[in-house]
Amino acid sequence: MAGNRSQYRRYTRSTAGNIFYFTVLILAGIFMVFPLFYCIITSLKPLDELLIFPPSFFVRRPTLSNYRVLPALLSNLQIPISRYLFNSIFIAVVTTAVGIIASSLAAFTFSKSRIRGRKLMFTIVQLMLLYNAYTLGVPQYLIFCKLHMIDTYWVYILPAIPSSVGCFLMKQFMDVSIPDSLLEAARIDGAGVMRIYWQIAMPIMKPAWMTVLLFSFQGMWSVVPSGTIFSEQLKTLPYVMSSVSAGGIARSGSSMAITVLLMIPPIIVFLFTQSNVMETMSNSGIKE
Q1: Which is nearest to 227 in space by CA: 141, 111, 125, 285?
Q2: pLDDT of 282 strictly over 70
Q3: 175: closest CA among 204, 216, 215?
């Protein structure tokens, strides 16, 4: 008993250790939300407080004038602001929904099927995690030109559907959370592959695809066309909002107001998916 007690004391943190860890976590949390607070505070500053030197972090006379002037700044656009808003919502929702289905189908195949070469194909998916959008920019543009996709919605949607991150997260989560015996019992009962995928695998994989939903929506909501969209009818809300930010320091308050408004949809999505994100990260081997 004495040996067990000494071993228990050895692996238990002291009160000072707990205080230290919580202090570090609180400071890290403050550091992460600092940009959000800075945007909100700056969007409430009047012009004279934006121009003072040295600049101050806190606002002395908060005002909503930076939000009130946005309709006037956007009223001279050739295309109604509602069109840009529709483009952003349409692209984010469609790409997220189709991307989740594509990633889950691929993960289901890699994790639970018996096709030949699936390990090699999954290795290729893992290698795709090493490449970013800038590396693939030139070959993607050449492919878009050959397929006549320039100046269409497909330029936004198609490249984002085959998500290596989404496939990896779902596959790792499925390996841990869905036992093969459960799927084998469903096959014995006469369930087909698509029924097993849709009625058994997808409900269990809810934390994983909710995590992918968060990442995909956040990325597509802030997407800006770069050399592939020239028609104003197809441009997104962040693109037209960036034109307001080009007015110099006099519009820095309005720019921050726009940033705050553009952050609202991703924050709402995060609030609905945060618990699922934590569960996915703990079950996907990422914490290792």
Answers
A1: 141
A2: no
A3: 204
Query: Rounded CA gap, 124 and 117, in Å?
Result: 11
What distance in Å separates the CA atoms of residue 6 and residue 4, rounded to the nearest whole number?
5
**How far is it, in rounded angstroms, from Cα 60 to Cα 45?**
8
- Does residue 81 or residue 106 have the better pLDDT? 106
What CA–CA distances, in Å, run from 280 to 39, 169, 207, 234, 257? 30, 8, 6, 35, 33
Give the closest residue to 200 by CA, choosing from 108, 274, 95, 275. Answer: 108
Q: What is the pLDDT of residues 102-134, one digit of tens each?
A: 999 999 999 888 888 888 999 988 888 887 777
In sign, the C-alpha dihedral spanning 33, 35, 38, 39 is negative
Residue 174, number of CB atoms within 10 A of its CB: 21
User: Roughly how many angstroms between the first and final C-alpha of the chain, as a whole number?
Assistant: 33
Q: What tokens appear for 273 in the block?
A: 């998916």
DSSP labels for 20-51? HHHHHHHHHHHHHHHHHHHHHHHHT--HHHHH
H/E segment holding residue 11: none
Contact 182, 111 (CB under 8 A): no
Gap between the Cα atoms of 192 and 82, Å rounded: 44
Give the Cα separation of 151 and 44 in Å (integer): 37
Residue 249 has what DSSP assignment?
Answer: G
Distance of alpha carbon 140 from alpha carbon 89, whole angstroms: 24
**Which among 157, 210, 209, 201 has a CA at the least distance from the CA of 183?**
201
Rounded to an integer, what is the distance from CA 45 to the centroid of its chain?
Answer: 29
Name residue, tokens 């890699």: 110
Altogether, the residues listed in the chain come to a count of: 288
